[in-house]
Design brief:
The protein is mostly beta strands and 313 residues long. 3% of the residues lie in helices and 49% in strands. The chain has 2 helices and 28 strands. The radius of gyration is 19 Å and the shape is globular.
Length: 313
């Protein structure tokens, strides 16, 4: 079993995880973190079949859990899931060019300025869903291959997208136009031809962007559009996140890398899976980090410097 995706509930007390068999598991973090926790508290209190194929992405809104699979997005109400009631509120499918085309949906983000859901995947396009009306309102076209990751900069009205084609595109969400293209593989300091050019992880903070995949994980200044730091990490990175004064990154290898903005890899913290697909930070009162990948275990960190325990799917 591989775990492809995770998402915390809005209150932060519950964690959802999706696997390659189309299942979603719901865990009670508050029960698992309790001093009186037992083995049963480390297992899901609810597991259900969500999609026919893998669950590629999970995302929480104020009231719903959104899941994506092959060609479709489904919404589940958190209040009902907590009661162990499993029934999708809605199922949406982007307007694909062909009815025979069933591309996976790899990434989803909420664009908060107008309450839209932005999704990207295997048809090379980015689809924008009006959450109020329940219909897709626009398509952002420009990538030449699969879209793997998305990130929003709401204050700048921008969306960032990373693709198999080796580019990070920056979109103006007011015009739906691509305004900048970053190609890390064309920079000697970032290029790793042996791994390819694809971009699999992407995040931003103020004027800074972090991206990686085939190219080395690197920090970019978004005003100058140039790399300022490149991290010497083996293998490919699949997720990255800014946390306090460092960047957390996961991918090939059984560890979470702690990277400082000045190119130094400060530490690599051991984990249970041999490689990792997903990393999530819970910013509510529970404040935990969870990582998962090529096993049925989800490692939970109450401090980024050590693994506290593992949940079992």
């Amino acid at each position: 079993m591989s775990i492809f995706s995770q998402s915390f509930s809005p209150c932060g007390k519950f964690l959802a995880a999706g696997n390659n068999y189309g299942e979603i598991a719901i865990f009670s973090l508050s029960a698992a973190l309790s001093p009186e926790a037992t083995e049963s508290n480390l297992k899901p209190f609810l597991t259900f079949s969500a999609h026919d194929g893998p669950v590629y992405c999970l995302l929480s809104t104020e009231s719903q859990l959104l899941s994506s699979g092959n060609g479709e997005i489904r919404a589940w109400t958190w209040s009902e899931l907590i009661k162990k009631t499993v029934k999708p509120v809605w199922t949406k499918r982007p307007d694909y060019k062909s009815s025979l085309e069933i591309p996976e949906i790899n990434a989803m983000v909420i664009y908060p300025r107008d309450d839209t859901l932005v999704v990207g995947g295997g048809d090379n396009n980015i689809h924008v869903l009006d959450m109020q009306r329940g219909s897709f309102k626009s398509v952002l076209q420009g990538h030449a291959d699969y879209v793997h990751c998305l990130n929003v900069r709401p204050q700048e009205a921008q969306l960032l997208s990373g693709s198999e084609d080796g580019s990070v595109r920056i979109w103006d969400m007011r015009t739906n136009q691509s305004v900048h293209v970053v190609e890390a593989h064309k920079y000697e300091s970032c290029a790793r031809p042996q791994f390819g050019k694809w971009i699999s992880c992407l995040t931003s903070d103020c004027d800074w962007m972090v991206c990686g995949g085939g190219p080395s994980l690197s920090v970019w200044h978004l005003r100058s559009m140039s790399p300022t730091s490149v991290f010497d990490l083996p293998g490919c990175q699949r997720r990255a996140a800014f946390h306090q004064d460092m960047i957390l990154a996961v991918g090939d290898g059984a560890y979470v890398s702690h990277c400082l903005l000045g190119s130094e890899v400060k530490a690599q913290i051991p984990v249970t899976p041999q490689s990792l697909n997903t990393l999530e930070l819970n910013s509510t009162e529970l404040q935990v980090l969870t990582v998962a990948g090529s096993s049925s275990h989800i490692d939970v960190f109450t401090n980024p410097s050590y693994r506290a325990f593992s949940l079992s799917f």
